[in-house]
Amino acid sequence: MMHTFFVFVGGGLGCLLRYGLWKFIPQGTFPTATLLANFLAIGLMGLVFMIRHPAPWLHPLLLAGFCGGLSTFSGFSFETAALIRAGLLWAAAANILVSVLGGICLAWMVYKFQ
């Protein structure tokens, strides 16, 4: 039951950070706030996985909770579809390439440094 509480708290904090990013990072043609939120979540996940003997509450709080609340595949998908609808195909393609390939590269770099 306590793990559920930690997921709840972490998820709320991650959502607040994501909202703050969307609120304070100017939204131009490219969805920078969503990209940053997703990259922050990937980086934090990697750092948490590097901890040798984590406390039992750490993974529910930070991985499922905070990183789950911070990262957003739905936001990425919706913003990419909006770019396509607006006829900004170059921005949509760039968002897909940077988000997917950049995320995989970031995760790979984290694994390399473990």
Could you explain how this protein is built, in words?
The chain is an all-alpha fold. The protein has a domain at about 65-114. It is about 80% helix and about 0% strand. It has helices at about 1-25, 30-50, 60-70, 75-85, 90-110. It starts with a helix and ends with a helix. The model has no long low-confidence stretch (mean pLDDT about 95).
Topology:
Blueprint lengths: L1 H23 L7 H19 L7 H13 L2 H13 L3 H24 L2
Helix pairs in contact: 1-2, 1-3, 2-3, 2-5, 4-5
Summarize the amount of helix as a percent range: over 70%
H/E topology pattern: HHHHH
- The total of helices stands at 5
Alpha-beta classification: mainly alpha
Oligomer: single chain
Rg from alpha-carbon coordinates: 15 Å
Would you report the number of β strands? Answer: 0
Termini separation (Å)? 31 Å
Question: Which key features would you list for this structure?
Answer:
5 helices; 0% strand; globular; mainly alpha; 114 residues
Kindly summarize this structure in a few lines.
The chain has 114 residues and is mainly α. The protein has helices at 2-24, 32-50, 58-70, 73-85, 89-112.
